[in-house]
Amino acid sequence: xxxxxxxxxxxxxxxxxxxxxxxxATVAAPWAVPASVFGAxxxxxxxxxxxxxxxxxxxxxxxxxLRNDDAQVVAICDVNRASHGYRDEKQYLGREPQxxxxxxxxxxxxxxxxxxxxxxxxxxxxxITRDDIDAVMIVVPDQWHACMTVMACKAGKDIYCxxxxxxxxxxxxxxxxxxxxxxxxxxxxxxxxSAPEARRACELVLxxxxxxxxxxxxxxxxxxxVGPGPGxxxxxxxxxxxxxxxxxxxxxxxxxxxxCLYRFRFILDYSxxxxxxxxxxxxxxxxxxNGTSLTGPMExxxxxxxxxxxxxxxxxxxxxxxxxxxxxxxxxxxxxDKAGFACRFEGTEGWVDFGWKGLxxxxxxxxxxxxxxxxxxxxxxxxxxxxxxxxxxxxxxVRNFLNSVKSRQEPIEPVEVGHRTASLCHxxxxxxxxxxxxxxxxxxxxxxxxxxxxxMLERPMRExxxxxxx
Length: 470
Known about the structure:
Layout: H1 13-19, H2 35-38, E1 47-52, H3 58-66, E2 71-77, H4 95-110, E3 119-121, H5 124-128, E4 135-138, H6 145-154, E5 158-162, H7 169-181, E6 186-189, H8 196-206, E7 213-220, H9 243-247, H10 274-277, H11 279-289, E8 299-306, E9 319-325, E10 331-336, E11 341-347, E12 350-355, E13 358-362, H12 392-407, H13 415-434, E14 438-439, H14 451-454
Helix pairs in contact: 3-12, 6-7, 7-13, 8-11, 11-13
């Protein structure tokens, strides 16, 4: 059942530190940073950041945080000390390489000598319980998002949590409850909400430039990795890799190099495949342009799904097509395609498409259509300026989060929005796995009269891990 949201209350930090599992650990204070490194923002006005996770996505997220003079990354945490084998075999990541990258960045910014102000940890609880950290980045496999978020909220931290926000619908509900109870800022890392052309596409749709919206077509990528098939054999756990903590609340399973690091994305115990990976982008924009960011479809119907052979290590769909229907009559068609990512709105008088190739419209003149002062204007991620370049949307998304931490105003993708987008993707996967139509009540967040589907809304946690009480 959907949890009720209790009254706002803040856990006393000292009480949390006394009861946290890592409270007895000795945590070193960060090396003092001279004001010259951070300019007018130093030292007391800067936001101190702890990054939990040091894998592929941090090669995008960390630089976006580092470039902001009013933020300082003081901690990096990962269960992997260092190794190759993330997105590709050449990529060398883990807590020690990323610690070095952070320290080297600040040393270069300082202009001389060395910088040793970013501490490295293997246990995320040592980051969360540091009293001198204001916010955490959660950039870890999906099975850890909810537990870490709740712990961070109770410790008084704000959170930048990578998409998809949750592993289960229930996780998303609990995360929402915790963020609201402890009055924290949470930004979901669906960075295309901060892309000006994506916002422009949604504004054109919401203001009727394509007539009545009929269909939304979203694209999710095909799998970019192939895992071992039936008969695969376990492998020894590499030195310097805490595999049991990596598994965390997920079921016990034998180690294989293709289970962890980048490839967790293709195993249902830790993720929802490309449906929740790329779907957290394309379906998120579908929700925005349809005006349904705080609700979702009422019906889900599978068209097809191709899964790996039974007994394979990878278990998520390799290709799929799904139809979801909203109460307003709009039909969402989500399909795997080599194009990788796109969201196309089709109406009675034209269409608008946003993807990796940017914004395209029909008729073409729609791109120049002016949105009047009395029409619908979606929020800008960073009103005062826009970053430039291929990663501009990520830079602005991070800047929006930092601004929200300071102002205590909602970020562009708050927890409720991230939860609803993730839920859409999760339920889509349920329909594919069950291979039947599902009816969904987005207000009550249940499948009416469907015990089999309702049982998929949450998963048990493997001992000794439990969800912290909100």
